[in-house]
Amino acid sequence: MSLPPLREVIARHGLSASKALGQNFLLDEQLLDRIARIPGALDGQPAYEVGPGPGGLTRALLRAGAQVTAVERDRRCIAALAELEAAFPGKLDVIEGDAMAVDEAATVPAAHVVANLPYNVGTALLVRWLGGEAWPPWWRSLTLMFQQEVAERIVAAPGTGAYGRLAVLAQWRSTAKLAMKVHRSAFVPPPKVMSAVVHIVPAEQPEGVSAAKLEQVTAAAFGQRRKMLRQSLKSVPGALDALGRLDIDSERRAETLAIAEFVAIARELSA
Ligand code: SAM
After folding, report:
1. DSSP state, residue 54
2. Does residue 1 lie in a domain region?
3. What CATH number does residue 155 fall under?
4. Is 122 near ligand 1, meaning CB less than 6 Å away?
5. Which residues neighbour 69 within 8 Å (Cβ) at sequence distance 6 or greater?
6. Counting atoms of ligand 1 from 1, which one is nearest the CA of 115?
7. I want to staple 70 with a disulfide (CB 3.0 to 4.6 A). Which of 49, 74, 133, 154 is the partner?
8. Ligand 1 geometric centre to CA of 131 (Å)
9. pLDDT tens track for 30-72
10. Model-wide pTM > 0.85
């Protein structure tokens, strides 16, 4: 199937990148195909793309054989995406709207999520998708482009400066990997910083732990990350007693705690 080059689609539909919508487009087909391969074989699988823009990544997902649902809030892109819907009959469903307002569990259950989003929207969606008490989640995998600095916080290990709430949230019941670094020059227009694609797959949730309790503990601990736990966890009822029962030295700082230790503290508080 021969589709017009993305640059032509962008010119014909007047899709000049909007700063306000955080638009930085990817046009390199080989790079887009590599990103679409990160979730694994997509042939016949449901994929959910957030922010398709002119449709470069959407094309790659369709080439991979996925059944794609895409949500885009920029009305200017909808006509360009309608051409793709026509070129891949029955394989692409475009929703015009804000991804924050989508009920994904009802709209795209068991989908592989793939997105190149403005980082603030991406982080807000990631936190929503990783949070909550319901597990396993509605999504099968997350393949998301972030600023490299944010990607590093998601996959960070204890004892590093990047380790914090996001790392614990992304790793306590999922595996999170940095799948690919993407140079700023790959985008049109190029953003100021480097980017990276993170790949997240759900794992088993540790027993007896409330996600809300874990979130409360990490928020307090990393909210004062330079302080000792006996100071930073003072505001969490029962947390200091839990440290004692678990034999975790209260003079340690949040950064030194393994994810399993945060989970153990949250379990004590969930009981
Ligand atoms: N996926 C395309 C690509 O890789 O070339 C476009 C990427 S661009 C960084 C981000 C896209 O997300 C834009 O098309 C923008 O309009 C869209 N977008 C931004 N916020 C959104 C939201 N809340 N809901 C849906 N789409 C959004």
Report:
1. T
2. no
3. 3.40.50.150
4. no
5. 46, 47, 48, 49, 92, 93, 95, 107, 108, 111
6. 1
7. 49
8. 22
9. 999 999 999 999 999 999 999 999 999 999 999 999 999 999 9
10. yes
